[in-house]
Amino acid sequence: MESLVDNIVALEREADALIEEAHLEARRIKLAVEGDLARFKDELARERNERLADLREQFDRKYQEALRVEESKLADGLKAIDQIPDALVRQQIDRILDRFREW
Question: Rounded to a whole number, what is the largest CA-CA distance in the chain?
C-alpha cells in the first residue's frame, strides 16, 4: 500500500514539475512574442515615417515646381505691363476720366 502512495506522490511531483515547466515555457513564449511585436511595431513606425518623408519630399518638389511656374507667369505678366507705352496708358486713363465726366 505504501508503494502505491509513494507512486501517487511521485506522479503528483512529476505532474507539478511538468506544469511548472509548461508555465516557464509559456512565459518564454510570451516574452518572445512581446519582443517580436515590439520589433514589428518599430518596423511599421519606421516604414510609416519613411513613407511620410517621401510624400513630404514629393509634395515639396511639386510645390517648388508649381511656384517656379507661377513666378515665371508673374514675371512675364509684369514684363508685358512694363512694355505698354506710356502714351497708351495715358490715353486709357483719359478715356476712363471722360466716362466719369459724362455721368
Answer: 133
Q: Contacts from 46-52 at CB under 8 Å and sequence distance 24+? A: none
Tally of domains in the chain:
1
Predicted TM-score (pTM) of this structure? 0.55
Q: Which domain holds residue 40?
A: 2-73
Whether 78 is in a domain gets the answer no
Rounded-to-10 torsion of CA 47, 50, 52, 58: -140
pLDDT at 5: 86
d(CA 31, CA 12): 28
DSSP reduced 3-state for 103: coil
The helix or strand, by DSSP H or E, that contains position 98, with its residue range, turns out to be helix 86-102
Instruction: Using alpha carbons, list the distances in angstroms from residue 42 to 53, 58, 76, 101.
Output: 16, 24, 51, 76
Give tens-digit pLDDT for 44-103.
999 999 999 999 999 999 999 999 999 999 999 999 999 999 999 999 999 999 998 888
Inside any domain, residue 43: yes
